[in-house]
Amino acid sequence: MAVAFTKEESAETAAETQLPDRAISPHPNLVTEEGWKALNVAMQDAREQYQAANAIEDVNEKRRQSAVPLRDLRYFSERVRSAEVIGKPASNETVAFGSTVTFSRDDGRVQTYRIVGEDEAEPKQGTISYVSPVARSLAGKSVGDFVVVGENELEIISIA
User: Fold this and answer.
1) 146 pairs with which residues across the strands?
2) Does domain 100-159 have CATH number 3.40.190.80?
3) pTM score, two decimals?
4) CA-CA distance, 59 to 56, in Å (whole number)?
C-alpha cells in the first residue's frame, strides 16, 4: 500500500508541476520606460522565487514550489527579450502610445487613462493597453474629436 501511495503521489506531483506556459500576445511588445523596468523586476522576482524553490530538499515539494516561478520566469524572459521601449510622445496634439487621455462618455462619465503596453495595463489604476478597443479608437485623434467604441461615443477632452 505504501508503494502504491508513493506512485500515486508522484503522478499527482508531476501533473501539478507541468503548468502550461502563459500566453504570449501576438501583438508587438511595446512598453513604456516604466513598463520596461517593471518587466525586469518581475523577471528578477521570478528568478529569485525559482532559486528559492530549488533549494528545497524534498524533490516533490521542490517541483511543486518551482512550477509557477519557472513558468513566470519563461514568460518574463520572453517579454523582456521582445520588448520595444517607446519613449514619451513627442507631442500632445494627437493620442499616441504613452499619452494620457481624458474623454467624456455619452452617459456623462469622464475618464482618464494612460495608453501603455499589454503587461502594464491596469484599468483600475488608470492605464489601458494600446491594443484595447478604446485605445485603438483614440489613437491618432485630437482634442474635440469623437470616436465610437461599441455602443458608446467618446469625446476627447485633453491629451497629456
Assistant:
1) 155
2) no
3) 0.84
4) 7
**Burial classification of residue 17, based on how many CB atoms lie within 10 Å of its CB (0-12 exposed, 13-18 middle, 19 or more buried):** middle
Query: At what angle are helices 59-82 and 2-17 packed, to 10 degrees?
Result: 10
Cell of 22: 502563459
pLDDT per residue as tens, the chain (160 positions):
444 444 444 545 555 568 999 999 999 999 999 999 999 999 999 999 999 999 999 999 999 999 999 999 999 999 999 999 999 999 999 999 999 999 999 999 999 999 999 999 999 999 999 999 999 999 999 999 999 999 999 999 999 9
Q: Does domain 26-87 have CATH number 1.10.287.180?
A: yes
Spatial distance between the Cα atoms of 156 and 159, rounded to a whole number of angstroms: 8
- Residue extents of the structural domains in the chain: 26-87, 100-159
Concatenate the DSSP letters of all residues of 77-109 into one string: HHHHHH-EE----S-SSS--TT-EEEEEETTS-
CA distance 66 to 72: 10
